[in-house]
Specification:
Elements lengths: L5 E6 L3 H17 L2 E9 L10 H28 L3 E8 L1 H8 L5 E7 L3 H7 L2 H8 L4 E6 L3
Parallel strand pairs: 1-2, 1-4, 2-3, 4-5
Helix pairs in contact: 1-2, 3-5
Length: about 140
């Protein structure tokens, strides 16, 4: 079995990613591994829109949300005795997660159990990460209502 000493846990604060964070923290504690929790402000949605006050406020709101999420996870990691690094970056989530994967032994990421049309229309960051990551990926699946 491989040694998993550095674990990357991407999060967007959703219920699905929170479940993955919990599993990643528990795994890191069990293995004595360190983690990096990554929050990506997805700027691709706004790339063709000229920056104005609304876009600037929205980006600031997303950054603030990310900071809050990362701080809350950091508190949980401290309580569990898990060494944690946190990172808030801007860009396309799957590209940045794959780029980060070069520096890690494992990625723990959540996904919805979507199928059919909803999967086709929404796409899947997790699926792209699984296909392109430079390290193993543990997918934590939650069922779609």
């Amino acid at each position: 079995m491989e040694d998993f000493k550095r674990i990357l846990i991407p999060t967007d604060g959703s219920e699905t990613s929170e479940i993955a964070v919990d599993k990643g923290l528990a795994l890191a504690r069990m293995l004595g591994a360190s983690i990096k929790v990554l929050f990506v402000v997805d700027t691709t949605t706004f790339r063709d829109i000229p920056p104005d006050e609304l876009i600037t406020n929205l980006r600031g709101h997303m950054e603030s949300k990310g900071d809050d999420i990362l701080s809350e996870i950091e508190e949980r990691a401290d309580e569990l005795g898990v060494e944690m690094e946190k990172s808030l970056v801007h860009g396309h989530p799957d590209d940045l997660i794959v780029e980060e994967s070069e520096n890690f032994d494992l990625i723990v990421i959540g996904t919805h159990a979507r199928s059919g049309l909803s999967r086709l229309l929404i796409g899947s960051i997790t699926e792209r990460v699984v296909r392109h990551a430079k390290c193993p990926v543990m997918v934590i699946k939650t069922m779609e209502e």
